[in-house]
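Researcher: I'm preparing a figure for a lab meeting and need a structural model of a single chain. I don't have an experimental structure, so a prediction will have to do for now. The sequence is pasted below. Please return the structure as tokens so I can convert it later.
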Amino acid sequence: MKRIMNLAAATVAAAVIGLAAGSALGAEVGGVKLDDKMSVGSQELVLNGAGVRTRVVFKVYVASLYLPQKATDLAGVLAKGPRRIQLNLLRTLSADQLVDALNEGLAENNSAAELAAVKPQVGQLATIMKAFKEIKEKDVVTLDFVEGATRVGLNGEARGSIAGEPFNQALTKIWVGDKPVQADLKKSLLGA
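Model: Understood. Here is the structure written out token by token.
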């Protein structure tokens, strides 16, 4: 009986260790494997949360939010940098579709005065995104806020940098602001 108990305890211990090791490798959301940690600039970030953006009935992308430490609200997200918003595309979009969606999200979550203050940066983002022409299924768009600038990347390649913390805060509100692009996505990004 003692041998069976020891064997059961060893099996449970192995299962717990296996689960812990599996979670260290990352999460899977919408069929996309995400790292639990990554480095942006010289700082390690942790996966705060992730979820699927849908539009009508279509799955558009998996959004993930990486922060220096976990946060459950907008103030916590914006409190420290660096941070990353990552979009893993689940369908192909034209650059115009992505720019239009970002502009809509910016307008919904920022006052007229806030938008006016970052209008040149919003124009820069549109120019960078339009240079993509098309974002294909499985492409990865990254929006990293580091050293006072938003660095835009596509599939690991730097595509442009936009100066200013107010711009990045306005951009971040698209997903975790008062009127997020999708309420359940906001909850997922904030780990709720």
